[in-house]
């Protein structure tokens, strides 16, 4: 009986999916996440942003670097030569949160949604680290894949 | 004027907090997070767990390894010699989610909440990776610090 | 005079072999190794295996992760985008040992036997780590390449 | 019931041993291993050694670097600030093998035998890599701990 | 005969200096370096700086991260738990160059000048990377230690 | 308005250049650098070189390893599967310096000059580390790209 979990073989053991014979195609994935924070923390970031503050720049670099390290963090991910990583931040003052979006691209044999999710997660963790003295009660929420293009399964979107 | 963000100096530049003269004390932090997934994905994991499946074991190892790499992922975190990392998973079938909790310990000069949060996040991402063929719509939610002990600021808890 | 050691140039200096112009072909390598351990240690692992223990799962994940890091561990190895890594454990109670086998695959320009050997070695070291409180006298033995397929030199097998 | 495997908790889950309250003491461990190789491979290394060849130097550096990365390779190892790593090679022509010995030191809370074993293993793998074009049938054998000093369990030796 | 190179033993082999018994003291090191670049590249960075550009922020983060990875880059460096890393940039328009300074701190057993030098070097390389499309002829110059405090050899300064 | 800095987007944010659709071509880059050192340090290295000393071998390995890690050190560099890395040292006694040259090759989508520069820089830092007890006043100078071949912009040379 085949296992519905592709990363677990018939014996229930962890299993790196074999992508040797898959075609090289252009693949893109986007992901999103949120960090909810206090008004004081949001103000601190906003003030930095209006000045020349490094808060968002630091989180952006951390997210990009993390995307490139995904296969070292997630045990069954394949090492990939990402051709593009981008991270964006929108300060959503009305909802007292920051909206993080990420995009990863590859000409390769497997999808890049884990790389996009890892970029979002580490960017959020980096924001947490820089704001935790102001607000230790922050919450990272809603990390998910938004869209996926390329590969055998075709294009895909959450909406 | 001092900056409320401890990781940004008065010029708005990223800044690693100087902990050279802080006392070495025992420090503990716990964190939690959730992954929401479809019934099919939850069933697949549960069946593995009842058998000898590696799904939760793989996510646990990934989380432990990530905690040890926190200072390489989060740019302004100090390198720490963690003395203990633990990850726990509770399958919460009623809410169709898995509850992830983590605990990190250190005898050192700075708190370990970022390590606990990183452990939770990477454990959740690893579950996502292993279940994404069954359910590409999963969502990682509610990553936050639960408790913090040791250090100058004393003990602290979310509740 | 050419040097019989391909990784040392005519001046006796360490040398990364130039694979720029080699063809991309499907390559596979398998390797094996053994860990000899006391009856008490073997029993402890076997009992874990019959229950839902993480011993072999942890060693499997460690071996897979190590295969992906081979070029960071072995100085003259090329970075490779492995398309498949698998590790298997057979408990050989008669000989009081565990037989570890590994398999690596790549569509690329160079062979993957070092990746397979690294996977076996680190899986064995991980078993050692987890059992050393029960048996500090364990011994890792017989790490070698079993088969190699693909590439200019053609298929190859130890037997 | 406690589990005889210290790295597995009572639920059978992978477990990083808590060393927070252990005393900082001077700890030393030595390990050894062998690589068996053909006369042609042994001659190639010996000729390098008599000249200014980098073969053993490369394997020595690889082993030292690997010792420092042990906690990233072995999932349940603690990160340690090693204070000394040394690797030695003896060419044992009579037995057509190279004898590798390693020594690691630490002033810390946990033993360093895994670091010494990792140093030996990666030094051996590096020799394998550099000689595999001459002899693909090499075998790494006899990797084990020789001595251990410091810590609660006192001094210990294989002989 | 002792070897004047502390990192090479009497046999001429690479050697990690044994610091096990050295005292833990507060240690600081500062280093500097320069990148010379065309007027066009300097203008591009300056314009970024006056706006909210990420050029210097990215190089600062890269330098901080590199300081923490020094022992993985420089084979005979000890792993250290740095307690502070800072990087500063001065745009020296008169000399058409950027002046990079770094500072590292540690309460530990060995000096941190290699960490400060690595931080400067990688910050300079990152500036090079971001400006190379405008000016491929840039030059990194004058990387050296400025001051060193703490440890047995006492305080030290280049001037 | 497009930004002259390719790694910064129109909003002034750090930006990984999208190379997804670039052609795979053979690319080569060479770089150079110098380390100036005292007569005593130069003599120590020269004596090692005439004997079987590991000084230059250690620096060569460090440079090769660093080239392979470039995308982890330089935030906006793409991960690349380098097909060749070489490092050369010339002892230039007349000018009391060592001349370091590096060469990197790739069949890929983006140039490898950052990899060549990183190799030179880390090789120089490693020489610094091994000689700093003899001469703490060393200086790393003149790190620059010498030649670049392959890719859309054609061949290029400093002279």
Tell me what you see in this structure.
The structure is a homohexamer of 159-residue chains. By secondary structure, the first copy, chain A, is of the alpha+beta class. Helices cover 31% and strands 29% of the residues of chain A. Chain A has one domain (25-148): Alpha-Beta Plaits. Chain A has helices at residues 39-50, 55-68, 70-73, 113-131; strands at residues 25-36, 84-92, 97-108, 139-149, 156-157. Chain A has a five-stranded antiparallel sheet, covered by helices on one side. Chain A is built from four helices and five strands, in the order βαααββαββ. Chain A is elongated. The longest helix of chain A has 19 residues, at 113-131. The interface between A and B is large, with 61 and 61 residues.
Q: What fraction strand of chain A?
A: 25-35%
Q: Tell me about the biggest sheet of chain A?
A: 5 strands, antiparallel
The low-confidence parts of chain A are none
What's the number of extended β-strand segments of chain A? 5
**Oligomer type:** homohexamer
N to C succession of SSEs of chain A: EHHHEEHEE
The CATH topology name of chain A reads: Alpha-Beta Plaits
Integer-rounded radius of gyration of chain A: 18 Å
How would the global form of chain A be characterised?
Answer: elongated
């Amino acid at each position: 009986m085949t296992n519905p979990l592709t990363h677990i073989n018939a014996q229930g053991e962890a299993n790196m999916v074999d992508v040797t014979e898959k075609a090289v195609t252009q693949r893109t994935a986007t992901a999103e996440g949120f960090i909810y924070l206090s008004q004081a923390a949001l103000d601190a970031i906003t003030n930095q942003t209006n000045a020349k503050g490094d808060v968002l720049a630091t989180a952006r670099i951390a997210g990009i670097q993390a995307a490139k390290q995904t296969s070292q963090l997630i045990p069954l991910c394949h090492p990939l030569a990402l051709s593009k990583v981008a991270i964006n931040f929108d300060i959503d003052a009305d909802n007292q949160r920051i909206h993080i979006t990420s995009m990863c691209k590859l000409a390769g044999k497997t999808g890049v949604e884990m790389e996009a999710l890892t970029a979002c997660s580490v960017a959020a963790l980096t924001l947490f680290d820089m704001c935790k003295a102001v607000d230790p009660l922050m919450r990272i929420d809603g990390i998910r894949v938004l869209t996926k293009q390329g590969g055998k399964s075709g294009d895909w979107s959450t909406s």
